[in-house]
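Render Raffinose/stachyose/melibiose transport system substrate-binding protein in 3D.
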Amino acid sequence: MRRIRLITVTIAAALLAAACGSSGTTGSGALTWWHNGTSDPLKSLWQSVADGYHAAHPDVTISIDPIQNEQFQTKVPLALQSDSPPGVYQQWGGGGEASQIKSGKVLDLTSAVSSWIGTLGKAAEGWQVDGKQYGVPFDLHVVGFWYRKDLFAKAQITTPPATMADFYADIDKLRAAGVTPVAIGSKDRWPDAFYWDYFAVRECSTDVVKQSIKAQKLDDPCWQKAGDDLTALLAKNPFQQGFLGTPAQQGAGSSAGMVANGQAAMELQGDWEPGTMAALTEDKDFASKLGWFPFPTIEGGAGDPGVTLGGGDGFSCTTVAPPSCPDFLKYIDGAEVQTKLAAAGIGLPVNPDAAGALKDPTLRQVFDFSRKATYIQTYFDIALPTNVGQALDDAIANFVAGKGTAASVAQSVGQAATGDK
């Protein structure tokens, strides 16, 4: 899964202790909790969170209903149309959240979390609609380039590229050194979108991006430029031979496996990738050979170079939840619980006090970069309504496969939004 990576962790005792530090108005009642932790260790981790909170607040009983990730797209809208939605449910923000609040069943958390939401930094903005907080993230993901230091050295590249001009020059150096510059898992299609998404936030100002997503119409010239940039990248032939048939994460021959085994120099992926790579290589020291750098800047682009692409996982409360629900979310984002989530490898912590749990110095670098980001743009397929975001992803993948045009990628959003074919 691109959003989350899991490893075994022992957490029950620490999470029980963490609950004692939770504070605020709670109120009695039964809280029904929908999350996607259907297997261990996440299933047991979340159960321990519920048990720990109940131990500190005996008047609040939490009933857990683990649900398969793919079922959320259908179950949540149906539940919000009913008279008995869950008290708290997993939320990815963006267009999905914006659609859900139209039901009138999603609780406006703005005032309830105002005293502490600021500690989460830019991460919390992805769960806002029209400036109001309707969800709270519990982890953060950031996309950037993972690269092999040894292969860069072989190509006599001394520093990671800061601009696209540098990036293209490094592609040439790597090719000259007999190294595949970039691995991509285009068989799974979604990795292709990372490139177009990043070109978009480099070419378009943040205001234009926000306005265009809200309007579900990409008619500013900067969106065409993003497609033109992707055209230029493809013309450089940066990817491995047969990349359209390469999976992203399945097996040693995947794009993740290629970098893990030194068969390619770079891959544009999220912070979960080192954990993914670990299972795909016999080189136990591969992590020490990995470096990371943010997506390069584009000369003349209107986008803020401090913007990064990312996402994460979070929760929303509904209007039927007991008053304890916002405080329960505060508990999940408290330092002790966040530390255990970070130690488990479940994304980057949204609470900076938990950053010490990131033992990998490169992951800590990614975390520090995320805290300095001027804006974290949620993946476009999540920021837009589900059907519109999927149409965009499909258009990007088709374009990378040689079908469509740079203009057709941008046009796919408006067509999907209006139902045009």
